[in-house]
Amino acid sequence: MNKKVILFAMVLGIVSLFTACNDDDDPNAKPEITILELGEGESHGNERTAKIGEELHMEIEVVAEGKIDKIQVRLHPEGEHHKDGEEGEHEEWEIDTIYTKFSGLRNTTFHEHLEIDLDAEPGDYHFDFIVTDMEGNQTDAEAEIEIIEAL
Ligand SMILES: [Zn+2]
């Protein structure tokens, strides 16, 4: 075998390695998450803000070759929101919820609203969107949300 043939064989090997990884029907492929919109519930907006006492609108595309098992949504305060002079330990409002109604689907456009409790403090929040498929693969998408006081 001359050098050219060896090189060609190597390139072929690399190419087939790539195609194996990109196989669309691979049940071991991790779920893919695309955050389309996060914003005011009233207008189904994409402002990345939500008002206290109102709702957060979420529109998120999910593709899971291994089929969706559950979707977890978490919203928790970023950093300290305690006001100065506040006494004692204070439970901060946060959301940690699991949706199972998408179970068994290979893809979906997740459109849900979260209620922002009147006890929520305004400020920066961390949004976590975690998809687990039936093969046990998990993907996490994150975003920053600002909770603001309703006028
Ligand atoms: Zn909406």
Q: Gist?
A:
With 151 residues, the chain is mainly beta.
What would you note in describing this structure?
- The strands form two sheets. This protein has a five-stranded mixed sheet with strand order 2-8-7-4-5, with no helix packed on it.
- The chain has one helix and eight strands, in the order αββββββββ.
- The protein is 13% helix and 44% strand.
- The longest helix is centred in the N-terminal third of the chain and has 19 residues, at 3-21.
- By secondary structure, the chain is mainly beta.
- The chain has a single domain (27-80, 92-148), classed as SOR catalytic domain (Immunoglobulin-like), CATH 2.60.40.
- A hairpin with a 4-residue loop joins β7 (123-133) and β8 (138-148).
- The site of zinc ion has 4 residues, from β6.
Relevant terms:
Immunoglobulin-like; 1 helix; 5-stranded mixed beta sheet; mainly beta; 3-stranded antiparallel beta sheet; 151 residues; binds zinc ion
Order of helices and strands: HEEEEEEEE
Give the helix proportion (percent range).
10-25%
CATH topology: Immunoglobulin-like
Provide the residue-averaged pLDDT: 87
Question: How many independent structural domains?
Answer: 1
Shape: elongated
Please state the CA-atom Rg, rounded to the nearest Å: 22 Å
Strand content: 35-45%
Q: Strand count, sense and closure of the main sheet?
A: 5 strands, mixed
